[in-house]
Design brief:
Layout lengths: L3 H19 L5 H4 L9 H24 L4 E2 L4 H7 L7 H20 L9 E4 L3 E4 H31 L2
Parallel strand pairs: 1-2
Antiparallel strand pairs: 2-3
């Protein structure tokens, strides 16, 4: 039996894991960075919103084209030049949710054979659509855990003052 339905379900539900991790975040907690050079919750959510747009493009390339080139992006340059420190977390979360839902709608009806299609990532090399969906799910899950850890660090920093 294929694990594909499970992967697609993880992909679909990961924005909700993030939303739960962010419940009650506001004010200075949004901008707390656990260490110099580390991202805040505000920056993480902006990153997820933008990364989902990149995934949307890559999914469509792999589905529509024959072995397209999937160009890597510099996430730190995006964070800096797209001003992640000023983006509103609620708006970023909604953008992430909406784009992820649109991506899910595209993916859920594809035949299983479509998930074997490949693209050539400029840093990772060949990737199947299946692996890309899995990576997108893992990406959001990882950042949800990171947001939880930042919240814990924020609470500890507040308690020690």
């Amino acid at each position: 039996m294929s694990e594909l339905p499970e992967i697609i379900e993880r992909f679909r539900r990961s924005p909700e894991l993030l939303a739960v991790a962010l419940t009650g975040v506001f004010g200075e907690e949004e901008d707390f960075a656990p260490a110099p050079g580390k991202w805040s919750i505000r920056q993480i959510v902006a990153h997820l919103a933008d990364a989902e747009i990149v995934f949307a493009h890559r999914f469509r390339q792999v589905i529509a084209e024959e072995n397209p080139t999937l160009v890597a992006f510099d996430q730190d340059a995006w964070a800096r030049n797209l001003d992640y420190t000023r983006r509103k977390p609620k708006a970023s979360l909604e953008s992430f949710r909406r784009t992820r839902a649109e991506n899910h709608e595209l993916l859920k009806e594809l035949p299983e054979s479509a998930f074997a299609r490949t693209g050539n990532h400029s840093e990772r090399g060949p990737l199947t659509l299946r692996r890309m969906v899995e990576l997108a799910a893992e990406h959001a899950e990882s950042h949800a855990r990171q947001a939880q850890a930042i919240r814990q660090a924020y609470k500890e920093a507040k308690a020690s003052k």
